[in-house]
Description:
It is globular and about 70 Å long. It starts with a strand and ends in a 6-residue tail after the last helix. The model has no long low-confidence stretch (mean pLDDT 92). β4 (145-147), α9 (153-170) and β5 form a beta-alpha-beta unit. The strands form two sheets. A three-stranded parallel β-sheet has the order 1-2-3. It has a two-stranded parallel ribbon with strand order 4-5. The chain has helices at 19-32, 44-47, 54-70, 88-97, 102-106, 109-118, 125-128, 130-139, 153-170, 215-223, 241-254, 258-264, 269-296, 299-328; strands spanning 5-10, 37-42, 79-82, 145-147, 178-180. Helices cover 54% and strands 7% of the residues. The chain has two domains: 5-186 and 298-328, HUPs (Rossmann fold); 205-293, Tyrosyl-Transfer RNA Synthetase. It has 334 residues and is mainly alpha-helical.
Amino acid sequence: MTKARLFSGMQPSADSLQIGNYIGALMQWRDMQDAYDAFFAVVDLHAITVPQDAAQLRDKTRRTAAQYIAAGIEPDKSTLYVQSQVPAHAELAWILSTLTGFGEAQRMTQFKDKSQRYGADSSSVGLFTYPVLMAADILLYQTKVVPVGDDQKQHVELTRTLAERFNSRFGETFQVPDPVIQKETARIYDLQAPTSKMSKSAESQAGVLYLLDDINVTAKKIMRAVTDNDGTVRYDREAKPGVANLLTIYAALTGRTVESIEDEYAGRGYGDFKKGLRDVVVAEFEPVRARALELLEDPAELDRALAQNADRASEAAEETLAAVYERVGLLRRG
């Protein structure tokens, strides 16, 4: 039986991924790669929608790929590659852009948020058309399942719309994909500002847990996490956001229910609870960090594995692109 296709990816936008990426994406991908024909990309073309230093971008791309592998995304089991090494992504994005209404693109919340933050003159056309490139990423591989964070669901809905529009206008060509959002752990919050999503762009890095941080740094950040004056380990997103966030992390990394963790720490206070979470996070991160750093010591071998996977991705992508060119009426080289 042929497995359904899955596609997802992350930008190489930092030296290290953070725990929100790990719980919300990598853990989910690792579990899903057995059930699906999985394609996982380091989406470096998306990264250049904002200014980048060339050397730093290449380094971050390798570091992101290394963390994928270290977290359990296996290049021999999944197709793990760098987006820019498969030219079909950019080619299909252009074709899809001719089917996308200006108003549709303008309504994408991420563009609205970033353009309001940085100003229209500082926002590139690439940032504006980012969701169209994301649609191309997905549709190239006849993707059925797209595991995404809840903030990306709108982009997958646009992808579905474009697939249906193309199919209606030119004939059945694209699989219409379905988003899969892991609701229980879709959002991890900053340890120092637990009403804000954890992000590398946070004003303070004290509340962000990075996979490649020294383990002692990670432990200290957990022990200094904001809680409240109540002293009770209990999940209440509204009244106790800091404690609720720590419980979410604890449950996600251990596979336990929040209720069982609440029961374990009943009457024991926040000190014991944080120590328990510290031990859980360190045990999870330490082997991932060690493996990622080991991979980065041999960049030539890492590049070789990524290139092999890019060849595999290109083979699948070219099948779709050939059908698109034929149906649109473009004259391809013989």
